[in-house]
Amino acid sequence: MDILRIALQVVLVLTSGFLILLILLHKGKGGGLSDMFGGGVSSSVGSSGVAERNLNRITVGFALVWFVVVVLLGLITKVDTGI
């Protein structure tokens, strides 16, 4: 169980980092921090609809993997502690 726990923790750290990067790559929708720092001007010129859709799909995929890993780590902890 220790090898599985370590492997899941490594996957959790990696997916967390990728999720942060992927979320930061998304185009601002207006009215937020991206507009405050001038992101509103560059976001209309930025990515196309296809690129944004693919970024959304990749982000959702990483989020699902992250969620499954969190649940599995919780189950392993529950089994190990005997709760």
TrEMBL record:
Q: Name one GO molecular function term.
A: protein-transporting ATPase activity
Q: How does it sit in the membrane?
A: Multi-pass membrane protein
GO CC terms: plasma membrane
**Keywords for the protein's UniProt record, in alphabetical order:** Cell membrane, Membrane, Protein transport, Translocation, Transmembrane, Transmembrane helix, Transport
GO biological process terms on file: intracellular protein transmembrane transport; protein secretion; protein transport by the Sec complex
Transmembrane feature ranges: 6-25, 58-77
Intracellular or extracellular location(s): Cell membrane
Judging by the UniProt lineage, the source's domain of life is Bacteria
Which Pfam family, any one of them, does this sequence belong to?
A: SecG
Write out the similarity annotation: Belongs to the SecG family.
- Job of this protein: Involved in protein export. Participates in an early event of protein translocation.
Q: What is this protein called?
A: Protein-export membrane protein SecG
Q: Which organism is it from?
A: Sanguibacter inulinus
The major lineage groups are: Bacteria, Bacillati, Actinomycetota, Actinomycetes, Micrococcales
Please state the gene responsible for encoding this protein.
secG
